[in-house]
Structure formats: C-alpha cells, structure tokens
Amino acid sequence: MVVDSDIDRIFHALADATRRDIVTRVLQRPHSVSELAAGYAMSFAAVQKHVAVLERAALVSKSRNGREQLVSGEVDTIGRARELLGRYERLWHARANAIDALLAAENDTNNEN
C-alpha cells in the first residue's frame, strides 16, 4: 500500500463542509480570516482552526497585507487530489471495460451454440 501523508491530509481537510466552502471562497479570491469568519455561524477562533487545517494540508496559504492575513487557495494541491481521483477513475473504467469484454465474449459463445 502506498502511503502518502500529504494526500491523507488533503482528503482529511476536505472531509469537512466548512473547509470545502473556505477553499471554494479563497480560490475565487484571497480573503482575510475576518472576512471568512463573517460568513459562518461560528467563532472567529473556530474559523482560524479550519484555516489552520487547510494550511497544514497545503490547500491554502496565508500572506500578510498590512495588519491582515490573507488566505489564498493553492491550485497545485487541488490538482494533486484531482490527479489521484483520476487514477482511481481510470482503474474503474479499465475494470468496467474488462467486464464488458467478458460479457461480449460470453454472448458470442452463446450465439455460436
């Protein structure tokens, strides 16, 4: 089994709806943590914790703009998750194609008899 702790962190972070929403918002444009917190019925500290989980997973990064910390989305990390899901999808399609080929061969055999 291939263990990729970065991928584990990415999917763990994306398992939470609030964190997925934060990623969506910061991919559209950078937001300060205060702006992000204003959109949720939770404390500023709770939003900061969500941002910290996303930052550890490299899904977002923070930069300083004066007194504010701006949170931006990391497209490259989203691409890594997409790449893994694409590999799973290709495996699934290969399996489905193999099943189709077996069924077609069985039909051909039945039609010959």
Structural overview:
This protein has 113 residues and is α+β, with helices and mostly antiparallel strands. It has a single domain, classed as Arc Repressor Mutant, subunit A (Orthogonal Bundle), CATH 1.10.10. It has five helices and three strands, in the order ααβααββα. It has helices at residues 5-14, 17-28, 33-38, 44-56, 75-112; strands at residues 31-32, 60-65, 68-73. A three-stranded antiparallel β-sheet has the order 1-3-2. A hairpin with a 2-residue loop joins strand 2 (60-65) and strand 3. Helix 1 (5-14) packs antiparallel against helix 4 (44-56) and helix 2 crosses helix 4. The mean pLDDT is 93.
User: What's the helix-strand series?
Assistant: HHEHHEEH
Specify Rg, calculated over alpha carbons. 22 Å
Largest sheet: 3 strands, antiparallel
**What is the number of E strands?**
3
CATH class call: Mainly Alpha
Question: Can you tell me the CATH topology?
Answer: Arc Repressor Mutant, subunit A
The average pLDDT value, as a whole number, equals 93
Strand content: 5-15%
Number of helices: 5
CATH-defined superfamily: Winged helix-like DNA-binding domain superfamily/Winged helix DNA-binding domain
Assign a percent range to the helix content: 55-70%
Main sheet strand line-up: 1-3-2
> Overall 3D geometry?
rod-shaped
| Count of discrete structural domains | 1
Return residue spans where pLDDT drops below 50 for at least 5 consecutive residues: none
Structural class from helices and strands?
A: alpha+beta
Measure the end-to-end span.
45 Å
CATH architecture: Orthogonal Bundle
Pfam families: HTH_5 (PF01022)
Domain HTH arsR-type: 1-93
InterPro entries: ArsR-like_HTH, HTH_ArsR_DNA-bd_dom, WH-like_DNA-bd_sf, WH_DNA-bd_sf
Protein name: ArsR family transcriptional regulator
